[in-house]
Design a protein that fits this description.
Length: about 575
């Protein structure tokens, strides 16, 4: 019999080799995704594990004696009480879970509509109860937007008589912070439609954006986990997330930017799951608006680009890398275009403004508020160098190197600095949501009614306790959720997109300027994974624990009453048997 392969076998060999090559390529692509997403989850597990543990033992609060100055205090908690509350909370959940067969019958459309309505009603009641007047940066933007809506561009010129002008050494506010013109544009459009007498139209839009953002989080939860029960839990968790609702009095780009970024994430996840490139259009538009409203949302842009690159490698969808490039051009280009447009309309020239190097210098220095919080270093360097960014950055780098050398030589100081900076931002459970309106003026008397109750009454005290327990539970569950995703192999570019944004936000505010109010727009991103963890915990079998409990239950049945010594009982039993 010949050992030479037949012609048929020869024809099979190339096909088998080709199939092997394809399988190897797919495995490589999947491995690329797996390595990337699991590194992200590993880092998040460590970061939020630390925050979760510390939230049991400590809470950061705004010092009542220095409330208007945002001075942060680090208060030790009675951790025994916190653990007791967590145990009671867990026991109640297990009790309730026995009666949740109705989840399969719940119409989630009604639940989503109810969440939107609930959040909107609470928000509208709050903003009209206190009618907060903007101050600081938000007033600068209101002043400019309301005037440009009437054709007055004087505030874009140096030496103009604008709000708090002395603080900027005679320079235009927008020579220092030109990126704020993105939100000026959005505000101007609103004021042209609704009038310039009040900021209330923007506060109403904030409320609707919070409600829409919550709806977006519920949709994303259903997208990535595909279960009604988890979406049901996240809807309840969102209904209890009051901080962003209270924050709606703040006439700034945070809330609008958060809403647009969340819905942009929804469409990008939909693209990853369906490969329908048309959904990239609303994704891109929403991300552009998000970055215009709040320039820090470039963190979303970076996360999107990273995941689109991984998707290109994984699925060989070259349109993904093309979209990533287009997204960068659109987001950054639109912001620059808006700045040039306002400069042209005002017939002036605007400088590049305070750079990220100066913000890094600020973030690595001490502040009277908390480590790495606002300290005026960035603005002072910029204006003292006559808005010469090269000269300002040269001084900033010198200071940064000096700070890094100090931390290198004193590791204990470095650990305390960054540890306190992390906790002062993430473990301040109100996220300045009440502070942003309490310290400002109001168009109504807040010495009575809801405003009084929240600012100085028992309602405010209850909210402090509630926020503390709520965020402690969320941090713990989020950490477990990341662990369960890794354990049950649910980590992929769709499920890890929002965690990557969280990691980006954490890293940015770890190094650059920090404030707890900056963290507020990230806390809702924790909730889908906290809800997944809670659902996993409630549905687990716990067979190992049950075996131990059952074996313990059987022990007393083997001994007669009055006999505690098992050895003695054995001897007596043997004697009786004989």
């Amino acid at each position: 019999m010949s050992n030479n392969p037949t012609n048929q076998e020869k024809n099979k060999e190339p096909k088998q080799k080709a199939q092997t090559t394809v399988k190897t390529a797919v495995a490589k692509h999947c491995l690329t995704e797996s390595i990337a997403v699991n590194i992200i989850c590993g880092l998040l597990f460590l970061v939020f594990g630390y925050i979760a543990i510390m939230s049991i033992f400590q809470t950061c609060v705004i010092d009542p004696a220095n409330y208007s100055s945002e001075v942060i205090l680090f208060q030790d908690d009675l951790f025994v009480i916190n653990i007791f509350c967590l145990v009671i909370f867990t026991a109640l959940l297990f009790k309730i879970n026995k009666h949740t067969a109705f989840f399969a019958k719940v119409n989630m459309k009604f639940m989503e509509a109810g969440l939107f309505a609930f959040s909107a009603i609470i928000g509208l009641v709050w903003i009209f109860s206190v009618q907060s007047i903007p101050a600081a940066d938000s007033y600068n933007i209101y002043e400019t937007a309301s005037q440009t809506a009437q054709g007055n561009y004087a505030f874009l010129h140096n030496g103009s008589d604008f709000y708090n002008k002395d603080f900027y050494s005679g320079f235009s506010y927008y020579n220092c912070y030109p990126f704020q013109l993105g939100f000026v544009l959005i505000s101007e459009i609103v004021y042209r439609i609704f009038g310039t007498d009040s900021t209330m139209p923007l506060q109403v839009i904030n409320v609707l954006c919070v409600a829409a953002a919550y709806l977006g989080i519920a949709k994303i939860t259903k997208q990535i986990f595909g279960r009604n029960k988890i979406e049901f839990i996240v809807i309840l968790a969102l209904a209890g997330c009051i901080q962003p609702v209270l924050f709606c009095t703040f006439v700034y780009g945070n809330i609008i930017g958060m809403c647009c970024a969340i819905w942009a994430s929804h469409f990008l996840i939909k693209y990853f799951q369906t490969n329908k490139y048309l959904v990239l259009i609303p994704c891109g538009v929403l991300l552009v608006v998000s970055a215009l409203a709040k320039y820090n949302n470039l963190i979303y842009l970076v996360a999107f680009v990273i995941m689109l690159i991984i998707h290109t490698v994984k699925a060989k969808k070259w349109q993904s890398i093309a979209f990533a490039l287009a997204l960068c051009i659109a987001v950054v280009g639109t912001s620059n275009l808006v700045i040039k447009s306002y400069a042209s309309r005002a017939n002036t020239e605007l400088k590049g403004g305070v750079s990220q190097v100066l913000y890094l210098d600020m973030g690595l220095n001490e502040s009277y508020m908390a480590p790495g919080w606002y300290n005026n270093i960035a603005l002072s360097l910029y204006t003292s160098n006559n808005c010469d960014i090269d000269a300002a950055e040269s001084q900033a780098w010198s200071d940064i190197n000096s700070r890094l050398n100090k931390m290198k030589n004193d590791s204990e100081y470095a650990i305390n600095f960054f540890g306190n900076k992390i906790l002062s931002q993430w473990n301040e459970p109100s996220y300045e949501s009440i502070w942003v309106s309490k310290v400002k003026g109001h168009d109504v008397d807040v010495q009575e009614g809801l405003g009084k109750a929240v600012y100085d009454g028992s309602t405010g005290q209850f909210l402090e306790l509630y926020f503390n327990f709520y965020m402690m539970a969320v941090f713990i569950l989020f950490t477990l959720g990341i662990y369960f995703m890794f354990l049950y192999k649910k980590t992929n570019i769709s499920t890890v997109l929002l965690p990557l944004v969280l990691l980006g936000g954490f890293g940015y505010h770890l190094l650059f300027e920090g404030k707890s109010q900056y963290i507020l727009t990230y806390i809702v991103l924790l909730l889908p994974y906290a809800s997944y963890a809670l659902c996993t915990i409630l549905e687990s079998e716990y067979t190992g624990i049950k075996k131990v409990v059952n074996s313990l239950k059987e022990i007393p049945d083997k001994q007669p009453k009055g006999f505690k010594d098992t050895k003695l009982y054995g001897k007596i039993f043997k004697r009786k048997s004989k």
